[in-house]
Design brief:
2 domains; Ribosomal Protein S5, domain 2; Alpha-Beta Plaits; binds adenosine-5'-diphosphate; 11 helices; 388 residues; 4-stranded antiparallel beta sheet; binds magnesium ion
């Protein structure tokens, strides 16, 4: 929705109650370029903010009430911020409510706002509409209260909100990149010490293409729990010979090979994925910095194979998308992105290749899977900010 219609809609929705200037907040969704299932192993991830975002228009109220309308769900919720924010109401509102609660607990906000939220991040599509909602809410509430917050603390507060209100045990990547992404940069994030490095991704001839398989397979939660368990088991076994290894981040392939005797072959393969993926992620950031996109692409294909064969979290639809992309001229690399069992692939390609890649997916994917994919090109975009 354009900003003029948005302002008009805001005026229609909120008659009276709030005063002063309108605050316009943008917070982007994200795609993870490489580094999958590494976060809970203290490893690295390399996401970038995409040019799709949540926009919140907000105006300060002079009481402790938040009135929030989501255009996507055509619903308005109301909740207090001058006392504990209740964990009730529609499921979508738990994301902003959790954010309001943690900012209240930190004594950063006392006053409420009228707010209209609208987004072009696909909801539930693995591009982190949830984190963009949280981060946009935090920016809006802080601005309405003339309060400031360090961005790392803000991202962690948003993670707290997702853990404690909707109850999703997410990592830190989504909130970090939505809050701290920079236009023209990917972010190498160390999930162990939470340090970040901005990696240039601003070649005018380069595009990132995202294609949603439009499938979501069941049993995902159980599979994740099993993977985490297998990683822990691998660490325990490696530790016997290498006592300094406290997570797979600390191990290398030599240590894993040395610990192979008596290790369940499945556990070995899971650990091999994590160890090699952490290495690929570091190498990817270096290759991106060197503008060696062919090397970046190779690492992406390597990541996909490792996720497919060693970590076993891909599926036929994601494999089909990667195989389609592989033979398109100008495509450097492609891989599944996100937790797996459905969701999106991400491809790195030349600007010229976007049209062919999109057309190929449109013609080939339905033949291979009987389904349609949703495909779009994007570039590394600005993290959350207030538009003056
Ligand atoms: P993803 O973050 O990959 O898009 P999640 O399942 O983590 O998927 O988050 C999606 C949920 O976030 C939605 O089901 C909804 O509750 C909430 N949400 C995200 N964007 C919006 C929005 N624009 N309006 C209302 N709720 C939203
Ligand atoms: Mg999410």
């Amino acid at each position: 929705m354009d900003i003029v219609s948005l302002r008009k809609k805001f005026a229609e929705l909120f008659v009276g109650g709030s005063s002063g200037e309108l605050i316009e907040v943008h917070a982007p969704g994200r795609v993870n370029l490489i580094g999958e299932h590494t976060d809970y192993n203290d490893g690295f991830v390399c996401p970038m903010a995409i040019d799709r975002r949540m926009v919140i228009l907000a105006r300060r109220r002079n009481d402790g009430l938040v009135r929030l309308h989501s255009a996507s769900s055509s619903q308005t919720v109301e909740f207090p911020v001058d006392r504990a924010v209740p964990k009730d109401g529609p499921a979508w509102a738990l994301y902003p409510k959790g954010v309001a609660e943690i900012l209240r607990q930190k004594k950063l906000i006392t006053t409420g706002m009228d707010a209209l939220a609208t987004s072009d991040v696909p909801i539930g599509g693995g591009l982190s509409s949830s984190a963009s909602f949280e981060v946009a809410t935090a920016f809006a509430l802080l601005a309405a209260n003339n309060a400031q917050m360090d961005l790392v603390d803000l991202a962690l507060a948003c993670q707290w909100a997702e853990h404690n209100y909707p109850g999703m045990p997410c990592g830190i990547m989504d909130q970090f990149i939505s809050a701290m992404g920079r236009k023209g940069y990917a972010m190498l994030l160390d999930c162990r010490d939470r340090s970040t490095r901005q990696v240039p991704l601003n070649d005018p001839n380069l595009r990132v293409v995202i294609s949603n398989s439009n499938v979501k397979h069941e049993l995902v939660m159980g599979e994740y729990t099993a993977r985490r368990h297998q990683c822990e088991t691998a660490v325990k076994l490696i530790k016997k010979k290498f006592p300094n290894v406290s997570s797979l981040r600390d191990a290398d392939m030599d240590a894993l090979e040395d610990s192979r005797l008596g290790m369940d072959p499945t556990v070995f393969r899971r650990a091999r994925h994590v160890i090699t993926e952490i290495e690929r992620t570091i190498d990817f950031a270096a290759a991106l910095e060197a503008r060696d996109y062919a090397a970046c692409g190779k690492l992406m294909y390597g990541s996909h194979l490792s996720l497919r064969d060693d970590y076993a979290v891909s599926c036929g639809e994601l494999d089909a998308l990667v195989e389609i992309a592989r033979v398109v001229p100008g495509v450097y690399g492609a891989r599944m992105t996100g937790g797996g069992f459905g969701g999106c692939i991400v491809a790195l390609c030349t600007a010229d290749a976007v049209a062919t890649l999109t057309a190929k997916i449109e013609s080939e994917y339905p033949k291979k899977t009987g389904k349609n994919a949703t495909t779009f090109a994007t570039v590394a975009s600005e993290g959350a900010h207030i538009v003056k």
